[in-house]
Amino acid sequence: MIEMTERAAQHVREFLDNRGKGEGIRVGIRTAGCSGLAYVLEFVDTPDDNDTRYESRGVSIFIDPKSLVYLDGLLMDYEKEGLNEGFKFTNPNQKGECGCGESFTV
């Protein structure tokens, strides 16, 4: 299961509305950073047949099969602190992260 807070869902809905198209967002991982893995977000206009689709607070979230094992149970939030804003990921599979918070290990 992949979930979003209302704040995160509202942010994604606003972006999709501003784009004027899109089925939802894809959340995945890629090899990066000093800890090994980083989150990747992209808009989905046409879902892949292999994607797993979740619905959370009116937003469709698509996960590719390779990322799903690392992201099962993920909670996405959206935070704004001063001039900084962005998604915050709470991942029960995460074992650690680098000092700058850009990458993680499972």
Automatic annotation (TrEMBL):
Pfam families on file: Fe-S_biosyn (PF01521)
Core domain ranges (all copies): 2-102
A Gene Ontology biological process term: iron-sulfur cluster assembly
Keywords, sorted A to Z: Iron, Metal-binding
Gene Ontology CC: cytosol
Name recorded for this polypeptide: Iron-binding protein IscA
Taxonomic lineage from the root: Bacteria, Pseudomonadati, Pseudomonadota, Gammaproteobacteria, Moraxellales
PANTHER family membership: IRON-SULFUR CLUSTER ASSEMBLY 1 HOMOLOG, MITOCHONDRIAL, IRON-SULFUR CLUSTER ASSEMBLY PROTEIN
Gene3D superfamilies (UniProt xref): HesB-like domain
Keyword hit for Metal-binding: yes
Known cofactor(s): Fe cation
A molecular-function term among this protein's GO annotations: 2 iron, 2 sulfur cluster binding
Sequence similarity: Belongs to the HesB/IscA family.
